[in-house]
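USER: I would love a firmer grasp of how sequence relates to backbone shape in proteins. This is the protein in question:
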Amino acid sequence: MAAKSALEDEEKKYFEKCVHSFRFYRKHALENLRKNIKDYHALPSQHQDMLKHFMARQTEVKHCIEINYMFILHMLDDVQDIFNPHEEMSNSSSSDSSDLGENMEPQDKISGEGLSQGDLDRVYTTIRQFVRDWSSEGKGERDKCYSPIIHAVCSRYADPTGINVLVPGAGLGRLAFEFASRGYNCEGNEFSIFMLIGSNFVLNKTDSVSFNIFPWSTCTTNNVSHADRVRSVTVPDIDTTQIPESAQFGMCAGDFTEVYAKDSNRFDVVAASFFLDTAHNIIEYIELIFNMLKPGGHLISLGPLLYHYAGMPNQPSLEIPWEDVMSVIEQVGFVIEEIRDVTDVPYIENHLSMVSVLYKCKFFVARKPKT
């Protein structure tokens, strides 16, 4: 019991750290903005004169940051209900908006002590993930990453009644929502607290209300124009309450290998987008998926082999080529029904940026034999 209590305390502390990271967004973003302004004022006067719109544009960027922060505060409202509905969070993680001043100086009393750059990067990534999953601007990206998976499921299970779909690495939940909105029973699984906070908000708290955010306003590089940087995106782009009453839909928090370690013959489909390479040991993932699928069920996957833990010190990481992944899938017992390349696949891309990273992904459908 003592070990369990210690683990729960550790998990609660990490959860509060994630919330704290979100709340530090405004101060961190404004500090970076102040640095840009300081560098501008350090220029020779004749150089400053060449950039007459610079200060006005920084004021506009500040406005975008403030609006993003208000969005974050909405997202954090009642966030403790995700895991501990009867516990109050510490004052350092509360979500009142009293610190929203108009001064250019970042006056937030909240401290960044204990936060790493990685924690803050995850906040910015979560904001931009809303573009990918829940905006009209992200539709092209979703068409590349999600549509092949959705089509493969719908073509094999035309009647969604009673069909159980698992979406591991569900992120902000759009792919899982797409299945539930079509009448499938769908469970999304996500390990990242940052993503779980975002998905909880968009799936449970928006109630047909949309928000304007400025996901690229803190990006200072590779902008063609200032307007590109400060353009707004509306989220969500769809009413997230429109799910058939017959469909069961939910998100499950936790490490994939721990949450589903004892599941057997439970799901008809495991629909994985940019997921398999998040494993410490991809073979463990494949064996676990095989076991959780019902006989005749399908693993449908699309993604690269970036390997999430590659190069991380003190983190085990099996990094094998695609040919070995396919060999393992067949050795585990799957029958490959379909395999093809999906090229020019972006991931959380700013499509107006001067830089673009595109993946050449592998898409495949593997079936667990009925006998």
